[in-house]
Amino acid sequence: MKSLRIYGVTLIMLFALGIVLLFFTKPYAHQVVSLFQYSPPPPPPPQTMVIGDKKGTATSVLLIKPNNFKVLDDIQRTLKTKLKFIHVIRNPFDNIATKLLRNLETREMARDKSFKANNSTLLDEIITHYFNHVESAQRLHQYGKYEVLDIYAHEVISKPQENLQKLCNFLEVTNDKDYIDASSKLLYSKPSLTRHSIVWTSEQKLRVTNEMKKYPFMRPYSFDKNY
Ligand SMILES: *[C@@H]1O[C@H](CO)[C@@H](O)[C@H](O)[C@H]1NC(C)=O
Ligand SMILES: *[C@@H]1O[C@H](CO)[C@@H](O)[C@H](O)[C@H]1NC(C)=O
C-alpha cells in the first residue's frame, strides 16, 4: 500500500486493482502533492481539499452492483462537489498472484526466488473475483459521469515526474518541483513480478490473457512483459 498525502489528507492507494474515490472541493494554489511514504512539512491551516476513499478493492466490490452508481450520484449532489476516480492498474498476472500469495500467507516465502505457491483451485477462484472487480472499473469508465484517471503502476515507477504531474493535473492541484522530485526518489526501482512466484496452468494463463482482451486499459500487459 502506498500513501498519497495531500496536506494532511492521506489516501492510501491500493496497488492491487484500485479505484480511489475522491470528493472534491475547490482547487487551491500552492498545494504540494507527494506520493509514497513521503511526509510534507506541516501544512498551512487545515482546509479540507480532498476527501478520499482509499479502499480500492472495496470500491470495486461496491460497483459490481449497478444500483450503487446512484449512491455516487447522491454523494456528488449532496456534497455539491466533483467526484473523481483514480484507477491504479498493475499487470493482472501480478495482481492475481499477489492475492493468491496473500491468501496462502506465503508472501514472505515468495521472496525466495525458487518458491512457487501451488493451489490451482484457489487460483481459479481468485481469477474469477479479480475480473469481477475489473468489470466494475470498466463500468465506471463507461458510466461516463465521472472523470477516471488510469494510472499504470509500472509507469509511476519508470516515469515518476510525468505521472505525478498527471495526477496533480487531474486533481487540479499545483505542485512543487522539489516535492515531486523527492517523492520520485522514494519509488521502488522496479515493479515486483509476483506472477513468477506461483504455479499457473497453461489454461489459467490463457484464461487471464483472454479476459484481459476485453479491457482497453489492460492493453499494455501480458504474462511475458517485464512490468
Ligand atoms: C502443483 O500441484 C499439483 C497437485 O495439486 C501437481 O500435480 C503439480 O505437479 C504441482 N506443480 C508444481 C509446478 O509444483
Ligand atoms: C488450496 O487453498 C485452499 C484455501 O486456502 C485450501 O482449502 C486447500 O486445501 C488448498 N489446496 C491445496 C491443494 O493446497
TrEMBL record:
One of its GO terms (cellular component) is Golgi apparatus. The keyword Nuclease does not apply. Keywords: Membrane, Transferase, Transmembrane, Transmembrane helix. The keyword Transcription regulation does not apply. It catalyses: L-tyrosyl-[protein] + 3'-phosphoadenylyl sulfate = O-sulfo-L-tyrosine-[protein] + adenosine 3',5'-bisphosphate + H(+). It holds the Pfam family Sulfotransfer_3. InterPro entries: P-loop_NTPase, TPST-like. The chain crosses the membrane at residues 6-24. Coiled coil: none annotated. It comes from the Eukaryota. Its EC number is 2.8.2.20. GO terms for molecular function: protein-tyrosine sulfotransferase activity. Belongs to the protein sulfotransferase family. PANTHER family: PROTEIN-TYROSINE SULFOTRANSFERASE, PROTEIN-TYROSINE SULFOTRANSFERASE 2. Catalyzes the O-sulfation of tyrosine residues within acidic motifs of polypeptides, using 3'-phosphoadenylyl sulfate (PAPS) as cosubstrate. This is Protein-tyrosine sulfotransferase. It comes from Desmophyllum pertusum.
